[in-house]
Design the sequence.
């Protein structure tokens, strides 16, 4: 742990005061909602995953940075929540898929509770999608198919990094990566690490949120009720 002994200096206090003022200004700001056609029950796709695919396409065409980025929220066995951004790498009627180390903190949470939520935060489009549901590991075949599409450098990093573990320094990570590069120097197809793979979030609730003026936002959600998807409108 690094101590920060200079936080009480006059220069540091002035910098902190300026940052606090800028933060307060940003929080107080009320960006005007972009006027769009209303999101109506009749305009929704027949299924949640088709609707999400439509909105993903809109985000790509609008030039949204990392349109497949989603915020994954989990909780540990004691109920302590945590969140982080991951990339959606699969979408079909079964759910949304991301890949990670099975030894990471998020994987420990998922193995403990078997529940998760994800949010696609497309604020440039003033849209959000929220998904709540159970989780499952994807098949070894799905993991291998995606693994083989990754750049070699990313594959090597997945072998080298003990994700979510405390490390002594960045130099120790560089050393570990160098060792892995030597290990696989003569290997054309790097295998999937035994500690690495995919998770699928299987939705039970999927909400599509679209901003409208005067805070009268559209909120429509697909809800799985006894094996059948129903659509509900929520008040903003």
Sequence:
């Amino acid at each position: 742990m690094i101590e920060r002994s200079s936080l009480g200096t006059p220069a540091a206090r002035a910098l902190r005061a300026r940052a606090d003022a800028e933060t307060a200004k940003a929080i107080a700001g009320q960006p005007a909602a972009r006027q769009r056609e209303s999101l109506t029950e009749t305009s929704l796709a027949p299924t949640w995953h088709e609707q999400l695919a439509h909105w993903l396409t809109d985000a790509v065409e609008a030039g949204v940075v990392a349109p497949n980025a989603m915020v994954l929220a989990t909780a540990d066995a004691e109920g302590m929540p945590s969140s982080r951004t991951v990339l959606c790498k699969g979408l079909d009627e079964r759910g949304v898929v991301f890949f990670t180390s099975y030894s990471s903190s998020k994987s420990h949470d998922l193995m403990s509770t078997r529940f998760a939520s994800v949010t696609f935060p497309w604020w440039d489009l003033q849209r959000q999608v929220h998904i709540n549901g159970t989780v499952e590991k994807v098949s070894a075949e799905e993991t291998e198919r995606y693994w083989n599409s990754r750049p070699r450098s990313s594959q090597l990093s997945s072998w080298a990094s003990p994700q979510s573990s405390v490390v002594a320094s960045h130099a120790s990570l560089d050393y570990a990566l160098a060792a892995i590069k030597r290990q696989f120097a003569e290997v054309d197809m790097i295998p999937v690490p035994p500690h690495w793979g995919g998770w699928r979030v299987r939705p039970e609730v999927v909400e599509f949120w679209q901003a409208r003026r005067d805070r009268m936002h559209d909120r429509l959600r697909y809800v799985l009720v006894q094996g059948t998807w129903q659509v509900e409108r929520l008040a903003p």
Notes: The first strand starts at residue 69 and ends at 75. The chain has six helices and nine strands. The CA atoms of residues 191 and 202 lie 27 Å apart. Strands lie at 69-75, 81-87, 90-92, 95-101, 115-122, 127-137, 196-210, 218-225, 228-233.
